[in-house]
Design brief:
Blueprint (H helix, E strand, L loop, with lengths): L25 H20 L7 H9 L13 H36 L11 H14 L6 H25 L3 H25 L4 H8 L9 H19 L1 H7 L3 H6 L4 H23 L5 H13 L3 H23 L10 H23 L1
């Protein structure tokens, strides 16, 4: 039977199974979108300054050109919604989606269920860059730039070291990432010890937070997340091919080294942008892809798009918990994701050999 990609070489009389493309299950897509919408509405309405659901929905519908409904929010409530609450929720959507899809991409190219977006040193590099910005008394605009630059340079150093000692081996890249992360963390610790008056702010950034002052952070991270996510989604079929191994993928015409490089670069760019405005929020890149894989299937044509939706939902809900559970105080959102992710990580360790 011909598959439409070349001549039919099947021996006469020998039956072959039909090749069916893997498609995103509609029920999981609709369920993910419904839960995401509910999380967004909760994020917009719940907080120290509670907002009525009907008023919030009216304000959103009023954004449609030509629509002007009565019964919206008053001026104070509208300011809370559009200047504080909405930017924070949208930032959570972007960061959560990016970390989740980057984690899925890393797991695909390294064929390792424990891989996450911070595997190759982006977290250590971003942390060092942010530390330098904080202790130097830089402006609020300098911190994201320093964190982004540090994250990219950290991964570049990992690639340079890995290629120098082990060629194109994935194991050499992983070991290089461990070495680079350890070195950058040591430098960060030294800087912190020399500037103890800045420790509180540094650790506040390291623990992760979604603090916004308008739409500036959203506009900063949006282009990077959009480009990175588009590249990763475009490579989802190739990640399925890589799952059989680099040598086997090569026999199928897939350049494993080039695909790995493109996926890592895209995931690194998006992750560095995300952590530059949110700090180091852990476990999203591990927890979310595994949840999707257990529920909807292991094909990356399913995992990547659903991971983006579930990751966005997960971080919006985690941030909602972080800013309400100790109200009027606030927990770092990274503490909430770690509270959920650490037990899940233990389960992954126990079941990885059986499920990967």
């Amino acid at each position: 039977m011909s598959t439409g990609t070349g001549p039919d070489t099947t021996a006469p009389g020998v039956a072959t199974p039909a090749l069916r493309p893997v498609r995103l299950p509609r029920r999981w897509l609709l369920a993910s979108l419904a839960v995401l919408l509910a999380a967004v509405l909760l994020g917009l309405t719940v907080g120290p300054a509670g907002l009525p659901l009907r008023g919030v929905l009216t304000e959103i519908v009023d954004l449609v050109p030509g629509v002007d409904l009565a019964g919206g929010l008053d001026d104070r409530q509208a300011a809370v919604l559009w200047q504080l609450r909405a930017p924070r929720v949208v930032l959570g959507l972007l960061v959560g989606a990016m970390l989740a899809i980057a984690g899925a991409g890393y797991q695909g190219v390294f064929r390792n269920p424990l891989a996450d977006p911070y595997l190759l040193g982006v977290a250590a590099g971003a942390g060092l860059g942010a530390t330098f910005a904080i202790v130097s008394g830089g402006s609020r605009l300098l911190l994201p730039l320093a964190a982004f630059t540090g994250g990219v340079l950290g991964v570049a150093a990992t690639y340079a070291l890995g290629r120098g000692v082990g060629g194109r081996s994935t194991n050499s890249l992983i070991l290089a990432g461990v070495a680079v992360a350890a070195f950058l963390t040591a430098v960060q610790t030294f800087v912190n010890q020399r500037n103890t008056d800045s420790l509180r702010e540094v650790y506040g950034w390291i623990l992760g937070r979604l603090l916004t002052a308008g739409w500036g952070e959203v506009l900063t991270v949006l282009p990077y997340v959009a480009v990175s996510a588009a590249v990763l989604l475009a490579h989802r079929r190739l990640l399925d091919v890589l799952s059989v191994g680099p040598d086997e993928a090569g026999t199928l015409g897939v350049p494993a080294a080039r695909v790995r490089l493109v996926v890592v670069l895209a995931a690194t760019l998006g992750t560095a942008a995300a952590v530059s405005v949110s700090g180091l929020i852990g476990f999203v890149g591990i927890v979310v892809p595994h949840i999707v894989r257990m529920l909807a299937g292991s094909s990356y044509r399913i995992v990547l798009p659903l991971a983006a939706l579930v990751g966005a939902t997960f971080l919006v809900v985690a941030d909602l918990v972080a800013r309400t559970v100790v109200s009027p105080g606030e927990l770092p959102v990274g503490v909430v994701t770690a509270f959920v992710g650490a037990p899940f990580f233990t389960l992954v360790l126990r079941s990885a050999r059986r499920t990967w």
